[in-house]
Amino acid sequence: MPVLNAEIAAMFDQTAELLEIDGANPFRVRAYRRAARVIDALPQSVESMLAAGKDLSELPGIGKDLAGKIAEIVRTAKFPLLESLKRKLPGDLVEIAGIPGLGPKRVKLLFTRARVRTLEDLRRAARSGRLRRLEGFGPKVEQNILAALAKRVGTEKRTKLSVAEGEADAFVRYLQAGSPRWRVVAAGSFRRRRETVGDLDFLVTASNARAVADRFVGYENVAEVRTHGPERATVILRSGLQADLRVVHDASYGAALLYFTGSKPHNIALRGVANEHDWKLNEYGLFAGNRRIAGATEEDVYRKLGLDFVPPELREDRGEIDRARARRLPRLITLADIRGDLHTHTKWTDGNATVAEMAGAAKARGYEYLAVTDHSRKVTVAHGLDPRQLSRQLDEIDRVNDKLDHFVVLKGIELDILPDGRLDLPDMILSRLDIVVAAVHSGFDLPREKQTARVIRAMDSRRVSIIAHPTGRLIGERDPYEIDIERIIEAARERGCHLELNAQPDRLDLNEVHARAAKEAGVKLAISSDAHSTATLDWVRFGIDQARRGWIEPDDVINTRPLAALRKSLKR
Ligand code: DGT
Ligand code: CA
Ligand code: CA
Questions:
Q1: Domain boundary residue among 216, 248, 280?
Q2: In 41-130, where does DSSP find H-type helix?
Q3: What is the pLDDT of residues 508-545, one digit of tens each?
Q4: How many domains does the chain have?
Q5: Same structural domain for residues 538 and 477?
Q6: 161 alpha carbon, closest ligand
Q7: CB under 8 Å to 96, separation ≥6 — which residues?
Q8: What average pLDDT does the structure give for the chain?
Q9: Ligand 2 center to residue 196 CA distance, Å?
Q10: Are 58 and 171 in the same domain?
């Protein structure tokens, strides 16, 4: 059974978390976290790299020692260090450490002094009022814990799109290898490019359905078979993700794809349109009485219903049906519209490539420009730059630009917004930059009014071009901080400031709803990768997915513009 990159990365993340709780050397902790990110971002499976004889220690952040450990995990599907850590620190400590306000030190205290191992232990201890007596706790922390635990109840487990994509692509390749005549497609929320998926939904056309279902349940990553019929099956993969299968005949392909792509509200609305004509729409086709009048392709079904083809990302019953009827659907942005990246990091702070390497990779992607926006000094964990260091980086950018044709590295910074809304660097140095991406990195718990005023105050400075990841959320890990996003959008519009759609697959911030609100208010977006390596420049495509779900067109986005026009839009 091959070990997926996502599984190795998850093992390393857990190891880092437990080492940290255990009080291990911070460098060691960071090395595992960093390795997890590197593996996550690889375009290829570690297993196939090893099979091809590649030396993993050549990857950034992976030394000989880690390379050996990865090879062992691939060989045995086990990581002894993690297993011994789990024995030493059993229970749900990793999840407990993820509760806002509970860092590794506090979790260690909970474990040693309050004998908390599971979430249930924690709930009981917090309810009994025992925790407030622990050093550094108090009633406020206790309340926060209870509130966080209450929120967890009933939250279904969803998988980030980037992780689901690795699983779905591998499964599709495996199924497709069953026969070149089968048509295999991953439908559901995955095809609609939702930021998270509940499960995967595979649709296959074949004349012999049973052969497909048998192959499906025989996949090596299947941990458990839930149902196994001739035309449908459900399995649980080793990662915990569920996968559903439906097999149909060619004549129903379009109707079935429509049905299983969803969303359910979109399907219901489409069925309503069919009803207006006295037709019936289901997963087998569009029917007038018993006669199938469409169904082989999605296009046929939409056309017959008098609708333009609706891209999967729009199928949420958020007005797309009316627009499709009026032939006024948006011309959604695509990856090919992007001409450059406006938020990236280098070795100067917490990135792992040089300015020249990042520029080369961006140019190879067909970009015209790349803004280098390393952290400013306040963000010490990322070795943020002070004015002197930044000044030296600007000299390096000049040297890199001298050597480049038809490509420009823009001088930028990811400027920390201080808790009171002041900026982390003086105007003197900011005036030498092409672009300032301002962001909140601390003080996430300010009350809504203060947080909103803080970001608006930052936008008052004409130096600030873009507000990065405006709500600070990390999907499945950290809620957005309290902020009035409508007022932020309005303030951005008044000031000619832009908002970022950060494309990191665990941020996607602004989300689709806010992105659409920004567009409707006339605020322009920057879709940026926030890459910390050359490979992760590719993350911009997750930003494009989210933007499409937010009805975003090329004109709504500043980094679809040629350099001269971009420069103009950065002037305030
Ligand atoms: P998920 O998995 O929670 O991320 O979201 P989906 O949209 O993938 O939902 P899922 O996996 O439950 O079902 C896949 C598609 O099948 C869904 O998008 C629409 C269709 N579908 C499922 N149940 C129903 C239903 O009761 N009525 C209709 N009209 N369609 C349904
Ligand atoms: Ca699904
Ligand atoms: Ca499903």
A1: 248
A2: 46-51, 64-76, 80-88, 93-97, 104-113, 119-127
A3: 999 999 999 999 999 999 999 999 999 999 999 999 99
A4: 4
A5: yes
A6: 1
A7: 102, 107, 110, 116, 119, 122
A8: 94
A9: 10
A10: no
Given a cut of 80, whether residue 498 has pLDDT beyond it is yes
- pLDDT at position 156: 62
**What's the gap in Å between 202 CA and the centre of ligand 2?**
9
Overall residue count recorded for the chain in this entry: 572
Range(s) of the domain holding residue 190: 159-248
Spell out where 78-219 has E strands.
159-160, 183-186, 196-197, 200-205
Q: Which atom of ligand 1 is nearest to the CA of 156?
A: 3
User: Is 529 found in the same domain as 456?
Assistant: yes
Helix, strand, coil percent values for the chain (each to nearest 5): 50, 15, 35
Residue type, 520: E
Task: Note the pLDDT of residue 1.
Answer: 60
- Among the atoms of ligand 1, which is closest to the Cα of residue 259? 20
In a domain, 330, yes or no: no
Mutational pocket test of ligand 1: of 257, 267, 271, 281, the residue with most ligand atoms within 8 Å of the beta carbon: 267
Q: Which of 154-163, 177-186, 312-321, 436-445 is the least confident region? A: 154-163
437-473 pLDDT, tens per residue? Answer: 999 999 999 999 999 999 999 999 999 999 999 999 9
Residues within 6 Å of ligand 1 by CB: 188-189, 194, 197-199, 201, 259-260, 262-264, 267-268
Per-residue pLDDT band for 132 (boundaries 50, 70, 90) equals confident
Report the nearest-CA residue for atom 15 of ligand 1. Answer: 260
Output Rg (C-alpha) for the chain, integer angstroms.
25
Q: Report the CATH number at residue 560.
A: 3.20.20.140
Atom 5 (ligand 1): residue with closest C-alpha? Answer: 189
What span, in angstroms and rounded, lies between the C-alpha atoms of 441 and 423? 12
